[in-house]
Design a protein that fits this description.
By secondary structure, the protein is mostly helical. It folds into two domains: 35 residues; 208 residues, MetI-like fold. It contains eleven helices and no strands.
Length: 275
Amino acid sequence: MSQSTMPLTPLERLSGWALAGFAALTAIFLIAPILAILPLGFSDGEFLVYPIRHFSMKWMEAFFASEKWAVAVKNSFFIGALSAAIATVLGTMAAVGLARHDFFGKKLITGLVLSPLVVPIVIYAVGLYFFFAPLGLTQTYTGIVLAHAALGSPFVVVTVGASLAGFDHNLMRAAASLGAPPMLAFRRVMLPLVLPGVVTGALFAFAASFDEVVTVLFLAAPDQRTIPREMFSGLRESLSPIIAAASIVMMATAIVLLIAVELLKRRAERMRNEA
């Protein structure tokens, strides 16, 4: 009997159950606070309190009817989409350059490119404020979009880099030998094969911008409000259940993005299997 088909020992079964139990408890610990706030968006009460006496849609209706929240939703999607587009272009270029060539200082440059993932967001926001202020980019949509694009670029670098890990660069050489210019070879040969990674990175970049509040607090003008900033202000001024309704909208957006990422992941697996 091969080692892969040998039955598990009692200790191995116990270890597997313990690991599964620990993973389940960790998931509950992470998800429970989110699940606790969502039902309050359907409460008929005036405050964020339990128990819920009656369920109602009035706070959801108030959210979608509010001009203030409508502006925040529009700003969040506008900034998120534009910053994700910039992050996708820059991140894809960086990933291709890092994957194709080995050069002195490559690890250092890779660390710098990925640094927004590990630098505390407050330090990042303060640094950007002092960098953007002399350039006149504070309290502008341009400054916010550039700040969020820099935050989203590392996600694109990681996902596109993962797609390029299995890419055969001989295909690019073959295209060049047939007379294709570099950009044409990239568009016709490389991009279709790594497209799931590019789109996945773009979705993560959008999510990073959509959920971000600290840099917006530092860089945005008073009227440049996003959903997270409006929620932050609401938590400081009044604990209205409309904040829970806003969290439901953000959660629904996150779920849609996760479903899209999963579909792209399955498509990428099918393409690898077909190749």
